From TrEMBL:
Keywords: Membrane, Transmembrane, Transmembrane helix. The keyword Aminoacyl-tRNA synthetase does not apply. InterPro entries: ARM-like (IPR011989), ARM-type_fold (IPR016024), MFS_trans_sf (IPR036259). It comes from the Bacteria. It comes from Thiothrix unzii. The keyword NAD does not apply. The chain crosses the membrane at residues 12-32, 44-64, 79-102, 137-158, 164-181, 285-305. This is HEAT repeat domain-containing protein. Gene3D superfamilies: Leucine-rich Repeat Variant (1.25.10.10).
Length: 660
């Protein structure tokens, strides 16, 4: 109970509810006993009153409660019964008579069942399912008996020492405390909804694995993971192991290297170890070197050169004479590490150029890897505007691009990202064709390359990528544009293009911590736009016999309603409710009606009243169509055809063309 503010408030609310309930029951029974002269009249009256209260309570629960929950939310309906209870006691205070007693009876028997009980169940349902049994046991075994004990003792003392007026005063006091507890429940309910949605949507919390001891179960799990057959799984475990337990990671990964024949996987495992540095790696790698195959030995030498091991400082000249491309590449890298302005480096540059111009793709990939590694080498003193490159590099790249496959093109793009745009600006029109490829990784690399400042062709390619199907490509394109034009240059993009492009723009503005007032204006604007799309959708839905074009437009408009609504919520994520809004968005995107209902309920708690009210109306499909803006279906379709959304615009224009 100590860990849940909602549960604490709920238990306190139930305790004071029981006391208030029995005080009201006692007072109205006193009135009834004073108002009737014999038992027969009282029994007849009780029968009629009970029947009426039961019927009215049932009708309220069936016809009104659900609507009130939709209109006002759980938090407001939760306050109805405390208010009516206080009003009943206030009526008894001013007029201790039969009408006031009937009002109290109606409150106790009808309103409690209609409003309080459903809300209680809804609120407690967001608590963990594993705790539901313990909660109900606590209610039945502790809270209710304790409240009944206090109620009984209190009534006995009050009727013995005080008059009914004093009892009414006590009842109003307990009703106020009961209302305060319900108000505290409302405050705690939002946090519980967010926790509930996180639990259902599998939002994981960060865990500090680094505090574990080396002999812990975690270390054994990571060790077993490194030996998984799937290379990607093994690499993920190896990376985590290196970060958490670097000393143990060297031994474990070295053991896996001895079992690895695939040279690509071998290279990747060594790359995972490389950040550990010479102190960790030099001795184990030198011990592994004599027994390694030639290609594996070349990979080991590359890492030893990278960590600047003095034991192999004299090897580059010999490695450059090898007939194995991988060994030659290690020699080039070693020559650079030892001093790239020496005579040896001139020989290494010639070998490097041969690798780039070779017929074998594997040699080309090694040449590109050399450029990435050399220009990313720790302690590199070369100025960024003058990167280390082999002779005729642009011509070699163009030749490789035109004749290479997707793997080679992706490697070229990854390499060009490290170079100033001036070095390859003439290649941008050719490289831009990568944006038409199916592989999102290739498109992502192309966008990263095209972000050079001052090059019109690259800037046009970035604008083309703004509406890419893959979210990472869109985000990177927006980021590259933002670096050139700033946040002010991004703002016009929110008035055109598809919702997914606008969402990427809002993401960049949030990332750069744009002014909160502007983002709230964006949220308000998008909420109104979502409302307009909802109006259009409601009009299109009324078509009696829609054709295929109209059905397609109906689907597209419905998608736009949800997408624009998500942008409105996304723009609010700078507020103090940012985490809650993020979870609400995730809940609304699920197909689970229960989770969507919880997300809508959490939306009612947002402090942004204008946006909240508009979006809730859209979600509940309770939008009134503006007949001045949309007098008929044709006007709605024309409105869609004028939107700066190419896909929506095309669908609407096709519908208009079919109708004419």
């Amino acid at each position: 109970m100590h860990y849940s503010p909602l549960l604490k408030a709920a238990m306190a609310s139930l305790f004071f509810l029981v006391i208030t309930f029995y005080l009201i029951a006692y007072l109205i029974n006193v009135v009834f006993s004073q108002s009737f002269t014999n038992e027969t009249e009282m029994a007849q009256f009780f029968g009629i009153l009970t029947t009426i209260n039961s019927v009215v309570g049932l009708l309220l629960q069936v016809l009104l409660t659900n609507r009130l929950l939709q209109w006002f939310g759980v938090k407001n309906v939760n306050l109805i019964f405390p208010v009516t209870s206080f009003a009943s006691l206030l009526a008894l205070f001013f007029s201790f008579s039969l009408p006031a007693a009937v009002m109290g009876s109606f409150n106790r028997d009808a309103l409690m069942n209609a409003f309080r009980d459903p809300v209680w169940e809804i609120m407690l349902k967001v608590l963990p399912a594993s705790a539901q049994g313990r909660i109900r046991a606590m209610i039945l075994a502790v809270v209710i008996p304790l409240a009944l004990l206090v109620s009984g003792l209190g009534l006995w003392l009050l009727q013995s020492w005080f008059d009914t007026t004093t009892m009414v005063w006590v009842g109003m006091a307990t009703a106020l405390v009961y209302g305060y507890c319900n108000w505290r429940m409302n405050i705690a309910y939002l946090d519980e909804i967010i926790t509930y949605l996180k639990r259902k949507l599998s939002f994981k919390t960060n865990r500090d694995f680094l505090s574990e001891k080396p002999d812990s179960k975690l270390l054994q799990t990571l060790r077993d993971g490194v030996y998984q057959e799937d290379p990607q799984v093994a690499l993920a475990f190896a990376n985590t192991l290196v970060q958490a337990f670097p000393e143990q990671a060297v031994t474990v990964v070295m053991g896996r290297l001895k079992m690895t024949a695939d040279i690509t996987f071998y290279d990747e495992l060594l790359c995972v170890l490389t950040p550990l540095g010479r102190d960790y790696l030099e001795k184990p790698l030198l011990n592994l070197l004599p027994s390694a195959a030639p290609s594996h030995a070349a990979a080991i030498l590359w890492v030893l050169f990278h960590v600047r091991s003095p034991a192999i400082a004299a090897l580059p000249s010999m490695l450059l004479l090898s007939s194995c491309p991988r060994t030659q590449a290690s020699g080039v890298y070693g020559a650079y590490v030892n001093g790239f302005q020496t005579t040896l480096w001139q020989s290494a540059s010639e070998v490097w150029n041969e690798l780039l111009q070779a017929q074998e793709v594997s040699s080309n990939l090694l040449g590109l890897r050399l450029l990435r590694s050399i220009n990313h080498q720790q302690g590199n003193s070369v100025d960024n505007e003058n990167p280390v490159m082999p002779p005729d590099f642009p011509a070699s790249v163009l030749h490789l691009w035109l004749g290479g496959d997707g793997v080679l093109q992706q490697a070229i793009l990854k390499t060009l990202r490290l170079l100033p745009t001036a070095q390859f600006a003439p290649l941008l029109p050719v490289l831009g064709k990568a944006l038409q490829q199916d592989d999102p990784a290739l498109r992502l690399a192309c966008v990263a390359v095209c972000g050079g400042e001052g090059h019109a062709s690259g800037y046009r390619l970035l604008h083309t990528a703004l509406d890419d199907p893959h979210p990472d490509v869109r985000k990177l394109a927006v980021n590259q544009i933002q670096q050139q034009v700033g946040n002010q240059g991004l703002k016009p993009l929110l008035q055109r293009g598809t919702p997914r492009m606008q969402s990427a723009v809002v993401w960049q503005l949030l990332k750069d911590e744009a002014e909160q007032s502007y983002l709230q204006d964006v949220a308000t604007c998008k909420a109104v736009q979502a409302q307009q799309f909802a109006m259009v959708w409601m009009l299109l839905k009324q078509m009696q016999t829609p054709d295929d074009a109209q059905k397609l437009l109906l689907i597209v408009v419905k998608e736009r309603v949800n997408a624009v609504l998500q942008i409105a919520l996304q723009a609010l994520q700078t507020s103090r409710n940012a985490d809650a809004i993020k979870v609400i968005r995730a809940g609304l995107e699920t197909g689970d009606r229960c989770l969507q209902g919880s997300a809508r309920e959490a939306l009612l708690y947002l402090p942004h009243r204008g946006v909240q009210k508009t979006l809730c109306g859209v979600l509940e499909q309770e939008v009134q169509v503006d007949r001045q803006q949309f007098p008929d279906v044709l006007a709605a379709v024309r409105w869609c055809s004028g939107q700066p959304d190419p896909w929506l615009q095309g669908c609407a224009q096709y519908v208009l063309m079919r109708q004419t």
